[in-house]
Amino acid sequence: MSAQTAAKKATAASVRSRKGGEPLVCLTAYDAPTAKLLDPHCDVLLVGDSLGMVVHGMPSTVGVSLEMMILHGQAVMRGADRALVVVDLPFGSYEASREEAFANASRVVQETGCGAVKIESGTYAAETVRFLTERGIPVMAHVGLRPQAALVDGGFKAKGRTEEERARVLEEAEASAEAGAFAMVIEGTDEELAAEITRKVACPTIGIGASAACDGQILVTPDMLGLFDWTPKFVRRYGDMKSVIEEAAEKYAEEVRGRRFPGEAETYRLRKG
Ligand code: KIV
């Protein structure tokens, strides 16, 4: 480890201890070079199952497999020196039983070397959070809008429009925290609900489209880099990757078509004999 990378590695425990303190900076990452660029700026790098949509072009996260999560988790681990790497457990890998959840979560931890897993934690999943945590796997919870529930919800819908729904999200959050979640993503709620959850749970909350009332924030990195024409309404673009890629590709294509690339500088000259 170089002097530059000797900064202390974040852990689930160090992230947990940030409750109510300096806001947690979190972003998603899916590959090694991007993880390396993001790592100095982030407390947490999440290998989110959003990779199904933003990397693999799927219509939702439901089709993402455990193998895909492990492969991308391994890549991100190669680029991350100091941020805590958290890997999502995909749809179908943790819901049926706590034992199956442990078998799959332990595979993720052993095969990637990541520091924690995340599950979309409806109230039913609290016992899974406890089961994994007690057996040595730190769990980040995820409440509010749960993208893996898109099929039953009829799409990606913000949560908390009715009193009943607000009570359910709060219940999910409290159950996950009491079961031992070291941190919790709150997605797609209004500020009032995010603030109430943040006040009531002992672990840090990390908001996405859930206001500044949370203990930290996360965004899907290609969204915040400006890679797509469409992003959810709450996403601020901090870059214009789409234009950077389009302009570079156009310039390259023009040079190739005009026989200006490769020039002398880009051509190998091999010494023969
Ligand atoms: O999969 C993902 O990227 C996530 C974030 C939206 C929090 O779960």
TrEMBL record:
<dbReference type="InterPro" id="IPR015813">
    <property type="entry name" value="Pyrv/PenolPyrv_kinase-like_dom"/>
</dbReference>
<feature type="binding site">
    <location>
        <position position="88"/>
    </location>
    <ligand>
        <name>Mg(2+)</name>
    </ligand>
</feature>
<protein>
    <recommendedName>
        <fullName>3-methyl-2-oxobutanoate hydroxymethyltransferase</fullName>
        <ecNumber>2.1.2.11</ecNumber>
    </recommendedName>
</protein>
<dbReference type="InterPro" id="IPR003700">
    <property type="entry name" value="Pantoate_hydroxy_MeTrfase"/>
</dbReference>
<dbReference type="GO" id="GO:0003864">
    <property type="term" value="F:3-methyl-2-oxobutanoate hydroxymethyltransferase activity"/>
</dbReference>
<dbReference type="GO" id="GO:0000287">
    <property type="term" value="F:magnesium ion binding"/>
</dbReference>
<comment type="subunit">
    <text>Homodecamer; pentamer of dimers.</text>
</comment>
<comment type="pathway">
    <text>Cofactor biosynthesis; (R)-pantothenate biosynthesis; (R)-pantoate from 3-methyl-2-oxobutanoate: step 1/2.</text>
</comment>
<feature type="binding site">
    <location>
        <position position="49"/>
    </location>
    <ligand>
        <name>Mg(2+)</name>
    </ligand>
</feature>
<dbReference type="InterPro" id="IPR040442">
    <property type="entry name" value="Pyrv_kinase-like_dom_sf"/>
</dbReference>
<comment type="function">
    <text>Catalyzes the reversible reaction in which hydroxymethyl group from 5,10-methylenetetrahydrofolate is transferred onto alpha-ketoisovalerate to form ketopantoate.</text>
</comment>
<keyword id="KW-0566">Pantothenate biosynthesis</keyword>
<feature type="binding site">
    <location>
        <position position="88"/>
    </location>
    <ligand>
        <name>3-methyl-2-oxobutanoate</name>
    </ligand>
</feature>
<feature type="binding site">
    <location>
        <begin position="49"/>
        <end position="50"/>
    </location>
    <ligand>
        <name>3-methyl-2-oxobutanoate</name>
    </ligand>
</feature>
<keyword id="KW-0479">Metal-binding</keyword>
<feature type="binding site">
    <location>
        <position position="118"/>
    </location>
    <ligand>
        <name>3-methyl-2-oxobutanoate</name>
    </ligand>
</feature>
<keyword id="KW-0963">Cytoplasm</keyword>
<keyword id="KW-0808">Transferase</keyword>
<dbReference type="Pfam" id="PF02548">
    <property type="entry name" value="Pantoate_transf"/>
</dbReference>
<feature type="active site" description="Proton acceptor">
    <location>
        <position position="187"/>
    </location>
</feature>
<keyword id="KW-0460">Magnesium</keyword>
<dbReference type="GO" id="GO:0015940">
    <property type="term" value="P:pantothenate biosynthetic process"/>
</dbReference>
<dbReference type="GO" id="GO:0005737">
    <property type="term" value="C:cytoplasm"/>
</dbReference>
<comment type="similarity">
    <text>Belongs to the PanB family.</text>
</comment>
<feature type="binding site">
    <location>
        <position position="120"/>
    </location>
    <ligand>
        <name>Mg(2+)</name>
    </ligand>
</feature>
